Structures are given as structure tokens and as C-alpha cells.
Amino acid sequence: MTDRSTGAVRYTVVYNPIAGSGRSVGVAASVGAMLEARGHSVELRASERAGHIAELSASSGADRFLVLGGDGSLREAAAGLLARSSGPQPELGILPFGTGNVVARELGLPLDPVRAAEVMEASFAVAFDVGWATADGREPEVFLAMLGIGYDAAVAARIGRSRATRFGGALYKRSAASLYALAGVRELLALSPPRFRVTLDGSSAGERAVAAVLSNTETYGKGMSMSPGASAADGLFDLHLRSSASPLVEAVALTSAQLRWRGPTWACQRSQGRAVVFTSVLAERPFAWQLDGDPMGLAREITVTLQPAALRLIGALACAAK
């Protein structure tokens, strides 16, 4: 556990040495130097392969485990921490170095990783709920921010592809909402999206939905929220459900997300719960899904459960919560 009596804390900082065209190496070194200058011990570890971050977090003996990366790297670290069989669980922190940085935004952290480290060094950690998603009987996947199903996930995948282009990357930096709208229009012009049924805590929540966002956090994307008021500390998911992929409904959903407004009930239905099942209406038409903005492919059925207060995350808002 963090030693507040002496002020000395054992940190592990994990980074991908090729991220940011190699800039991550220098950023990690700067974070380490700053923490050491403030009297802490720091171990810098480079991620060497897929799954290595989970291995490092699962075996870490640090008080605090910091990940230099995006939401995907944070998910991997969380999976490792939750797989630990012994020893106290380190507090988890994110040094924003991705594109969406949803969890960092939720925690109120600066998006500059060195500045974020300075803020976390002076901040407490708070309990944080996590979600587990099991698709078609495969191994469960952890997520911290949100799960998207159907049209929403297809749009997220299209945004991911667009961000990899010069035009899409520039548009995302200038206006993420504009890129979301463009990707949404293109997806609407594609074939009609697969429909799915939704069961929430054992009761039907929708029979022919086309899009769903199951939020653990209020933040959905860059400055947007699909579930205003959602909290990773309340032991509940917030479900945003749409049964139409019409241009009007999607325009209302996007505008509401930009304004962080719940929106009209005719456009989207909202509810809360702890256990959700999404099932394709037609077995031959699986739906797209995403976790924390990362496309996860296609599935016919996804079972989602909530694990309350599973992690302790460090953030600027943690001090206010204390």
C-alpha cells in the first residue's frame, strides 16, 4: 500500500517503446525523473509484446502502477491487476498517451502525461467499478469506460480507421464530434444494421435495438457523454439504447452527447442495472462491438456483468471524492 507516513511511494511506470514514434521512451524517463526528485522510488518497464502489460501488473510489487498509453493499455493493466492471486493490489494510474484518453478525462487528469503524473503524485486513489464482457462463450474481457454494441460500435470502428489517415487524424484533433458525425453518416448509408435484443437484470429492455452504449463512466469520447450522470463508483451500468438508425435519431443522439444532455425518450431509452445480455435477433447477422473505443469484431451474444469497486484508480477528481 502507499506509504503516506513517510511520503515515499514505490512506482512502476510501464511504456511501449515504439509508441509515438519512440517519444514514449523520453516521456517515461521524464515522469520517472520527476517522481524520483520528489523522493519516490521508480521502476521503468518497457512493454515488449502483446499481453506484457498484464503480466507486469499481475506481478508488480509497487504501490502504484502507472501506464503510459491509451485506454487499451489501461484495460490490459487492469486485467493483470484483477488476475492477482496474492499480495495487495497496486493503485492504478494512466499517463495519457493515446487518442481518446476516456478514463483520463473521466478522472480529471491533464492530457499531458508528465503533468498528469505531477497531479497524480499529489492525489489519492478511489474505488472504481469495472465491467466484464463475455462474447459467444469466449474468455471474459474487462472494460473501464464503456461497451458499445451495433451501430455505435460500427461507427467507432470507422472512426478508428479514419483517424489512421492524415485527413481523419487532423479532423479528430480539431473536432472529434465532426469526425463522429461523418463516420455516422457513412455508416447510415451502408446496409441496415443488425438488430439485437437486450435483457437488463433479467427483464427485457429492448427487442429490436440497433445501437447501445453501456457506460461505466460519464465520459464517452472527446468532450462527449452518452450517459450524463454515470459514475464508476455507484455500482451500476448506465444503458443508452436506440431502436432506430434514422438520420434524425442519430443527429439527436450526437447533439445530446456533445451537450452532455440526456436527450428525448423518443430518440433513446435509458436505464440502469448490473447484468446485461445482448443477443442478435438473427443468428446469421452478428453485431459489431467495442470496449473503451477498441473494436472487438463481431458477436452473436454478449453477457456483461459489473464488478463494483474492483480497482483503485488515481486521479485529480479523487481528492474531491475523498
Explained architecture:
The protein has 322 residues and is an alpha+beta fold. The protein has helices spanning 23-37, 52-59, 71-82, 102-106, 113-121, 151-163, 166-174, 176-188, 247-259, 316-321, and strands spanning 10-15, 41-46, 64-69, 91-96, 125-135, 141-143, 146-150, 196-200, 203-209, 211-215, 237-242, 269-273, 275-280, 287-291, 294-299, 301-314. The strands form 3 sheets. Strands 6-5-16-13-8-9 form a 6-stranded antiparallel β-sheet. Strands 12-11-10-7-14-15 form a 6-stranded antiparallel β-sheet. The longest helix has 15 residues, at 23-37. It is globular. The model has no long low-confidence stretch (mean pLDDT 88).
